[in-house]
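Q: My labmate handed me this sequence with no annotations at all. I'd like to see what the chain might look like in three dimensions before we decide whether it's worth expressing. Could you predict it?
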Amino acid sequence: MSSSKDIKIPEQFGEMAPYRGEDFIAAMNRLVKDPGFEHAVKYVMPDVDYPEFVKSLLQVRDQNEFQTQVMGHFLEMLAASTTTGLSIDGEDNCKPGMSYTFISNHRDIVLDPSFLNLCFIRSGMPVTQVAIGNNLLIYEWIADLVKVNRSFIVKRDAKVVQALEAAKQLSAYIHFTLSTLHESVWIAQREGRAKDSNDLTQESLIKMLALSGEAPDIKDRILAVNLMPVSISYELDPNDYLKAREFLLKRRDPQFKKSQRDDLFSMETGLLSNKGRVHFRIGRPINDELARFESTDRTEIIRRTCMLIDRAIHCGYRIYPCNYIAYDEINDTDRFASQYTVEDETSFNNYIERQLDKVDVADVTAEERAYMRRMMLTMYANPLTNQLAASECERS
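A: Here is what I predict for the chain of 396 residues:
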């Protein structure tokens, strides 16, 4: 089998595909000259010797070297400084030589696939290509950076008329990557993060994946992308107070929309703030169960696919003391009191209050603060709520 490096990317995917070959080298040369990139590097690595850093970057020759040597080193530093442990299990569900569509819940704009790939690097497993929305490519240097880092671009600003064509192109690229490049991809189960951590797969995403493929049957086209659910569990969400702020602003004004500045600040906060423990659980591919599903109805197949993904993700969460505490408070119960100590409860409540103090909204009333607090508790309770429901479904 020829190396994927030798395979030419079809012209139809040129704008969206990660950079390779000469395009990779040209993008690296643009990056190191961009003042915005230099500012970002010095911001996240204040002690960096930038000229030496540039010299090392210009010696990198391809995506794999960039991800394993440059990004791998950076992510190890980030994990050490912003988490109290990054772990993974379920790697044995990945068969050598197989390509998967890793589909996961979505907590952090940047770090979900980055930390997953770091876990793969540690385990000696192939890294994945990563789907990233073009709404986050605020500056040209960000677009260059993600595309040298093996990311492909999802068009999220297409007009209604062009949306179907954009979806077909994305679907075709994912099928091409899996079947021809023999590389895996990562994609979130929904567009954007679930602000309340109620993680549910969007039917439109599965419909998109089924738009391409050689099989005439929709189920076979879904089977072709080899969906592998991944559960991501952050002990603490650095953006919890920003999500609570957004809930409040939308409550005040249903037309409220975040700005690009808000997205940039969310990315920065997620990158650099404390996340506590972070765990990834790789489930089993859903293909065996989906293949046994006997219905030929398109809508039922889509819904069954979503259900299998959601159940696997919900069952795979790692539950932390803060999740039990939030669940008990939201539900006015002591059902899980044995899972945490008085010290855990005091520490978590103090954390919530400190996060609420960061909300920069004018004239917040006591009732509005209580509302934001409840929304934050809901974020932390929902993984446990969903796991309990999913476990009940598995038993029945």
